[in-house]
Amino acid sequence: MPNTLVEESLFSIIHCYHQYAARGGDVETLSLEELKALLMDNVPHFMDTLGRKEPYYIAELFRTADKNKDNQICFDEFLYILGKLVKDYHLRYHRQLCAHYSAQHNLY
Length: 108
Prior knowledge:
Layout: H1 5-21, H2 32-42, H3 44-49, H4 55-65, H5 75-104
Helix pairs in contact: 1-2
Pfam family, one: S_100
GO cellular component, one term: cytoplasm
GO molecular function: calcium ion binding; calcium-dependent protein binding; chemoattractant activity; transition metal ion binding
């Protein structure tokens, strides 16, 4: 039986994390520059449309996720970042859904 879409997505996220972590330094963690490259390369539309590509956003995201303050993002800390991205995407989805519904029903 082939993998489901969610299983493929999870594998892709893990693979992506390790691909960027292996660029330099510790191959099991992301530096700020590696995280920035991962986000800008792999979620560019999200980063751009919500103003998330500003350097302060990525630096603050990194600082908040770096729970042990070692200036590296381990996979568990990366999961925190993914959680924030998924929450933002979910909120964006609801806003678009509400806007579509309101436009269809002349609620503006």
